[in-house]
Each structure stands twice: as structure tokens, then as C-alpha cells.
Design a protein that fits this description.
single chain, alpha/beta, TIM Barrel, Type Iii Antifreeze Protein Isoform Hplc 12, 2 domains, two-stranded antiparallel ribbon, 10 strands
């Protein structure tokens, strides 16, 4: 199976992944439809917005968090104070539901993937998706990383709240078992991430330190007015951007409050397309579109006073004026000392054929 994410990323093309996660439960409740209908609606809207892939989260509260596990999010936005209690609200889907969503994505021509949070889901998701995603929360869970790496598919690895040695160990674990493309996603585990905590320069560091992998960004900031967070991440080298996604950013709870909606996604993609136009080529050469200006705006060697036939040219006989259609000033040493074949009037653009 081919992955749009990997194909685009390997070709240096921007990839936007909509992290639906489990936000479809709240959309379903608001719209009085089933969670499956809400999930499909979110997929449809993502496709229309130009998003390249949608990602879900596959877990069961019992295998993910102990009952007394404390919260780590903004409780003014999500008031639940236990991880287990929160996850229990959103864990009703299993293999059959994700299979239906995977098939729906395929028919809608948008890539499907889901983060597995246990071995069982890692197994059954294998037939449903082209790429595995490792959550930042599992960066130190090396046995689980190894298990998924052995599926021998491309991988995305979020590295939020990690130190350099932990990133190295996770990559080493993957590479011992998997030689497929690997995408490292810079990430900050604050929900939402304040703008001054986004720490986007880390993207440039990751590009330098890990030249053999693709670098991306998993964003938890609230969408800013001009989408400068994502644009800056892209300019620093994040080819793949994953961002939480909702149809209603005003909904309380879970991941709506720092998510993009379809309108945001459209503007992000258009903004990146404009940046790509601006960035152009890395070649150090004159553009074809500059040739006319280059010819007219550059200078030629021009006679300073009349040069008579038979005169030997000296530096004092010459000056430099526009346009650049004559002999370039860079070739002045080829003119000095030459004998004029003809009478040359003052202020004449000099040509090589005028001299012996």
C-alpha cells in the first residue's frame, strides 16, 4: 500500500494531517448523530479542505491509564481530573469501527491512520493503515515501539517532553527492526501550548542532528490569526504537520480548544502554497525571468571621449554605463592595450569587433 504522507514527504511536499483523535464523540453529541456518522462527517470536511490524511486514536481506558492517573491538560478547558475517566468516555470503537473508517477514507481518497495505544490495536490496525504513529507518551516505551517497528511500515514518532538520549534510543530501537521512512515530529506536551513555549527552533536542530529522517511538527497551539506557528515550523524544516482537528473549536473538553477546523486547514494549506512559491529554487543562478533586466540594468564599457582609428586603448579612455549589451566591465583587461579598428565616437557602447 502506498502512503500519501510518505510519498509527499519524500518529495519535499507539505503534508497536513488532521488529528481527529476522538473528537468525533463530542461532534456526535452536539449534532445528535452517531459517533460513526460524526467521524465520517469530519473525514468529508477534511477532504474538502485539502487535508492529506486523518488520524484517530485507538485505545481502551483499562489498558492505557490507571484509575488514579492524574490529568496533565488545562482543566478550565477539559475539567476531567483523571486520565482513566477521560479516556473511558471515548473508547467504544474497536476493530470493526476502525475498519469501516479505513475503508471510508480509502473511498474518499484521504489517508487513514490511527495511533495505537496497546498491542491488540497495534495488531489489528496493521491491515488498515500504511503508516504507524507513536505517541510522545510512548517514547520511552521501547518494547511497544519495537513491537510496532517490526510491522515493517513507515513510522511517525512524536518526541514531546523528551531528552536527546531518549530520542536516540527510540530511533535506535526502530532502526534495529525497521528500515522504512521515519518521520520525527517535534511536539510540546502542553494542552494548549502557549505560543512562547512552541520552541520551534528545535526543528532546525532536529534537521541537523538527524539528517537521515524526515522532520515534522505535531502542533498543540491554538490556531493563530495568520497561522504563523505552522508557517514558521514549515520554514524551519517541518515537512509534515499534524494538528488536532474539530468541526467546532468552541466545544469544551478533550482536544477541541487547541484544534484547527476545516477553514483553518484551508488557510494553512494556501499559506504554505504561497510560501512554496516564495521559496523557489536553491540554485545559485540568474532566473530566466531576470534576463531582460540583467541585460538592461547592468553596465557595459563605454567610450569616454572619441577614440580614433589606430588608437591604443587606455583605461582613461573608458567608462561604464547601462545597458549591459556591450563588453562587460569584467572584461576590461581584454580591451586595454587593444588597437581601435575604427573611429569610435564619444559615449559609444563598445563591442569586441571594434578592436584588433
Amino acid at each position: 500500500m502506498e502512503s500519501v504522507i510518505i510519498e509527499r514527504a519524500l518529495n519535499g511536499k507539505f503534508v497536513l494531517i488532521a488529528e481527529i483523535g476522538v473528537n468525533y464523540y463530542d461532534i456526535a453529541k452536539k449534532m445528535k448523530i452517531s459517533p460513526m456518522e460524526a467521524a465520517k462527517l469530519m473525514i468529508n470536511e477534511a477532504k474538502k479542505a485539502g487535508i492529506h490524511a486523518v488520524k484517530f486514536q485507538t485505545y481502551k481506558a483499562e489498558t492505557l491509564a490507571a484509575k488514579d492517573s492524574p490529568y496533565y491538560w488545562d482543566i478550565t478547558e477539559e475539567p476531567t481530573k483523571s486520565q482513566h475517566e477521560l479516556f473511558k468516555k471515548f473508547d467504544s470503537f474497536g476493530y470493526n469501527e476502525y475498519k469501516e473508517l479505513s475503508e471510508y477514507c480509502k473511498s474518499s481518497n484521504i489517508e487513514f491512520l490511527s495511533t495505537a495505544f496497546d498491542f491488540e490495536s497495534a495488531d489489528y490496525l496493521n491491515e488498515l493503515m500504511n503508516v504507524y504513529k507513536i505517541s510522545s507518551s510512548d517514547l520511552s516505551n521501547l518494547p511497544f515501539i519495537e513491537y510496532q517497528a517490526k510491522k515493517n511500515k513507515p513510522m511517525l514518532l512524536s518526541i514531546g517532553a523528551s531528552n536527546e538520549d531518549e530520542i536516540d534510543k527510540a530511533i535506535e530501537t526502530i532502526r534495529k527492526n525497521n528500515d522504512k521512512p521515519l518521520i520525527l515530529l517535534h511536539c510540546v506536551l502542553e494542552y494548549p501550548t502557549p505560543y512562547d513555549h512552541a520552541n520551534l527552533n528545535k526543528i532546525a536542530t532536529l534537521k541537523r542532528k538527524y539528517p537521515d529522517v524526515i522532520i515534522g511538527y505535531s502542533d498543540h497551539t491554538k490556531p493563530d490569526e495568520s497561522y504563523d506557528v505552522v508557517k514558521t515550523a514549515y520554514n524551519l524544516g517541518a515537512i509534515v504537520v499534524e494538528k488536532h482537528y474539530t468541526l467546532d473549536k468552541t466545544l469544551k473538553g478533550n482536544d477541541h480548544y487547541h484544534a484547527m477546523n476545516p477553514e483553518d486547514a484551508e488557510k494553512i494549506i494556501k499559506g504554505i502554497e504561497f510560501i512554496e512559491k516564495l521559496r523557489g529554487s536553491y540554485d545559485l543562478k540568474c532566473l530566466d525571468t531576470e534576463l531582460k533586466a540583467r541585460s538592461n540594468a547592468r553596465r557595459s564599457i563605454v567610450s569616454l571621449g572619441k577614440i580614433n582609428r589606430g588608437d591604443i586603448v587606455t583605461k582613461e579612455m573608458l567608462t561604464y554605463k547601462r545597458p549591459g549589451t556591450g563588453i562587460s566591465p569584467t572584461e576590461i583587461d581584454k580591451i586595454i592595450g587593444k588597437k581601435s579598428k575604427i573611429d569610435i565616437e564619444d559615449d559609444t557602447i563598445l563591442k569586441t569587433e571594434m578592436f584588433e
